[in-house]
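User: Small ask, check this?
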Amino acid sequence: MATMVVVIHFGDHFTVIGHASLERNPYETLRYWAFYVGISLAGLLSLGAALSTIATVREAHGLMAADCLQSIRNVLWTHYSIASILTCTSLALTVYAMMLCAFLWFAIHSYHGLDRKGRYSLTPPRSHGFQTQEPSLFRWT
């Protein structure tokens, strides 16, 4: 725009008209007015282009910070998945171990109970003179 205004203002065709010897040359005033308006518009267009370029560069940095944030999110999501799997596995193993421990505790205490004096005995409890029976498979063999 600025180049076009300068070429028109200082071009051969318009210079001849501007230097015509008339008392009041209306083309001379129009030529100066068009030149100043054209230069002003060219300046505004240049300012707009510069601001647009600056905004684009700033946005590009923001996009880089965003493309970067997505990578960080993906890495963190992977670590979160691994940590969740390990936590759930350890919780399941803990519950399983607690069930085994409870089963062992009940097995020990049902087989080796307290005797009448409040002490633990290592022999199976006998009830009032009755002999405990072996399982039927052992009796049969």
